[in-house]
Amino acid sequence: MPKYIFNIDTLSYEEVRRSRRFRMTKGAVLFAGSILMAVFWLWLYSSVLGFSLPKTRALEKANARLLSKMELLARQVEKDGEYLASMQLRDNDIYRSIFGMHEIPSEIRNAGFGGVDRYAYLDGIDRTGILKETEMSLDILSRKACVQSTSFDEVEAVAKKADNMAACIPSVPPIVPDRAAYRVSSSFGYRSDPFTGNSKRHTGMDFATRIGNRVYSTADGVVESIRNDRFGYGNYVVVDHGFGYKTRYAHMSQITVKEGDELKRGQLVGFSGNSGRSSGPHLHYEVIYKGNYVNPIKYMDLDMAVDEYSSLVERAGS
Fold first, then answer.
1. Are residues 154 and 282 in the same domain?
2. Total number of domains constituting the chain
3. Would you say 204 and 198 are in contact if contact means Cβ atoms under 8 Å apart?
4. What is the distance between the terminal CA atoms of the chain, rounded to a whole angstrom?
5. 275-316 pLDDT, tens digit each
6. What is the pTM of this model?
7. Phi and psi for 141 in degrees, rounded to 5?
8. DSSP 204
9. Closest CA to 238 of 201, 271, 287
10. Within this chain, do residues 175 and 269 fall inside the same structural domain, yes or no?
């Protein structure tokens, strides 16, 4: 729209004509001014007044929702880790213990962790550290669950044979429980060594009896080893009964089995004697459970009827 000014000399309105360059310069100035004004108001709105732009607010809300979900996932992973830890404890202390299986060491349960930081790529993505920590926890949980699953498979395989477990526990005396034919000359635990007089742990029970008294296997098992220890056990037999149990029959005069033989409870192993480091004719008998010596008297009844024991021996012999 053209502009007019009043000319006092001619007393008339005259049209003002602007050059194109002037109009372009004016337009550019107005455009730049509007840009500067917009930037100023934007700075004032966000930096001074502390308000967020609509798009920023939308991103902040979305980020807050994701962060909340990540925190919830992290708490769930932590709960699952606690539940798995209780399963590991029951597995070692109850399930594997019942069947005489060795505990799984913590080194194996935690194998494969540590070392190279395989989560470094998340450092520039997650400034809160929650994502990195959660992924690390999930990785650890997955590996531990894999070990636990393998352990349960092993327990299941052994449990299927549990009907044989009762026969593999050394629960009868190694000799006929006839009080007229033997006496317990030394029990399990600390005692005065008959050779040195010093206090020393006795790892089994001693049955003082004549040379040649019959010695029987106290449970089903397999002959693991037969040795002659001149300065210790003398002639001895170790029987592996499975489920964590082993028995040793020492200072024998004669052994009637060989390594690898499968034995039944009440089957003849050999004859008592006085071989090795011995102060007199006797049978030294040990019960070993999961590598540890245990008190044999806890597994047998010395008041067992002789007829009942003889019947057991007859069934084993047949």
1. no
2. 3
3. no
4. 129
5. 999 989 999 999 999 899 999 999 999 999 999 999 999 998
6. 0.60
7. -60, -40
8. S
9. 287
10. yes
